[in-house]
Amino acid sequence: MELRHDGAWYHISPWGLSWDDENYYLVGYDAEAEKIKHYEPTTYKTMKEIFKRSKEKYADNVFILEKFEPKGSFKEITYSQFCKDVIGFGTALTRKLKLNNDRVIIIGENTYHWYVSYMTMLCGAGIAVPTDKELPENEILNIIERSRATAVIYSTKEAEKIKKIVDAAEGVKYFIQMNSSQEPDGKFIGLDYLIEEGTALVDGGDNSFMDIEIDPDEFKVLLFTSGTTAKSKGVMLCNRNLAENINAVSAYVNLKEEDRLFSVLPLHHTYESTIGFLLPFAVGTSIAICQGLKYIVPNMQETHPTALLAVPILVETLYKRITATIKKSKKDGLVNSMIHVTNALKTVGVDIKRKVFSEIHDNLGGKLRIIVSAAAPIDAKVGKWVQDIGIMFLQGYGLTETAPIAALTPEFNPKVGSAGKPVISAKAKVYNPNENGEGDILIKSPTLMMGYYEDEEETKKVIDADGYFRSGDIGYIDKDGFIFITGRSKNVIVTQNGKNIYPEEIEMLLEKLDEIKEVMVYGKEPENNSRKEAEELIITARVIPDKEKIIKSFTFWFAIVGIIGIILNLVSFDDISLFIGLNPILNALSSSKACCDIINSTPYLWYILSMITMIGYGLVIDALKNLIRKNNSLTLH
């Protein structure tokens, strides 16, 4: 592959094995200590620096595509318009509303004004507090109080929820509604109104907002990681954390101006707000905003994205739907054969995958070339399939605390199944590995957070004296430096004989069964000393079945076994019709003289059918009937 940088970086040996004072092994991989060849990375320090550059360089490029009317068409908004709105909004906030470095809640679905609001904060208007729109009123209020926010920017869809907390949110001076031109009315004001007011000041020569100097290490973003209770953690990020994410990704992935990202994940998560927003903005790329999960395919067909940021469940859902359609059309054999053929051709430099699998590509917009999965492990089979049909499959790894990227699979050296290599500025190591090399993943990176908000004690627990962050993930690092995540340290089940069981691995295996919708594996204490080893945990899987899939999968066999059972008078019609709506067929066959004559004239057939019926009905139908009729979930031991 042709790389932007023709040279290579030479460093000391990347691997080390040593003892520390507590006598445990410390095995690590340092991306800076490997002789590697990668794209030449960018060297940004702040988002303000990126903003100024993109404003000038990509002014005429389309930045945002969004449907503002459900049945309308996608509207295109250029970099020039976006930057003008950011400057206008920032000027109004700082000059009109006198908000200077205040904490500002941003809450709402992915929409143009969310992007404007977040960038305005990063460029000097205040400290952004991105908040989950799914939170109930009391938890939103909790975040407002904990962050000491003085303004709340909210989408129109959240208006009713916000109105309910206005009186209780005494510290909030302004409630700013997106897509609203409302003039000041008590604490309420429209965002469009503020943009107009600020733009008028700018047109009159006010450059105060653009003159604000940004300290790369200044606190600029506050994110609450899990829930909003008093025990939840607030992650503090600075401009350098975000800029270093862009620098890191630029070394592993060559995103181009002509690319288009498809935004489907919520922006209040750093995965989407950093990699799905700030990164493409730095490159001059456009972003198409999805209307919602049920609109993914039609929106992709309308906007023709080239890249998709996803979580495993989204990729797996696409995989299952596409493969199910292929199987239904009885083309699965042909597709599998063509996968083998195109893979063989690709090894000798001939890549015809997009042409061969054009029908699949067309369903996804026709131009999709990259899918990035992150946030959780994914079945390697799914990632391999994505590559097999001609789409580059990459995996990222990180946390909110790393803003979020800590590792990524390079597009020029992907390894499906891994969580990626530490990004070029990062180091990763395994703390106290077991006999399989698995242990706690530790990360050191310039993307690492400033610390937990107002919680120095908790910060010291997770960041050691050498600057390594305890991720809470269990995994190993292979000889090539790729990280593999096998579970979460908090979830590990330790058996009586000291064996570590990682629930995530078992869950991933069980989720391969189409008949299982959701599953949770955990260690359950035995009830009433039901086991001899009363102290040993029982590895338990809590399963929510997919009833529709079960019925579809077994309908044919239900019918066969049921028909035989009715003919032999071993089961009642009502038992069988519970599962399948074949009343007329079953009635006809069960009263058929021809069927009875065949059975009566062949004695051995009677016994064979009896055995099939007893086994089939007893083991299959009865079990599944209980599953479907009586349970919403099932415990397996």
Can you describe this structure in just a few lines?
The protein is α/β, with parallel strands linked by helices. It contains 21 helices and 28 strands.
What does this structure look like?
The chain is an alpha/beta fold and 637 residues long. The chain is 39% helix and 21% strand. The chain is built from 21 helices and 28 strands. The strands form six sheets. Strands 4-3-13-12-14-15-16-17-18 form a nine-stranded mixed beta sheet, with helices on both faces. A hairpin with a 5-residue loop joins β22 and β23. α1 (47-57) crosses α8 and α17 packs antiparallel against α21 (603-630).
Shape: globular
Total helix count? Answer: 21
Strand order of the largest sheet: 4-3-13-12-14-15-16-17-18
The proportion of residues forming helix, as a percent range, comes to: 25-40%
Helix/strand class: alpha/beta
Overall pLDDT metric: 82
The share of residues in extended strands comes to 15-25%
Distance between the termini: 50 Å
Number of strands: 28
Low-confidence stretches: 1-36, 570-596, 602-621, 627-637
Rounded to an integer in angstroms, the radius of gyration calculated over CA atoms is 29 Å
User: Could you give a short account of the major beta sheet?
Assistant: 9 strands, mixed
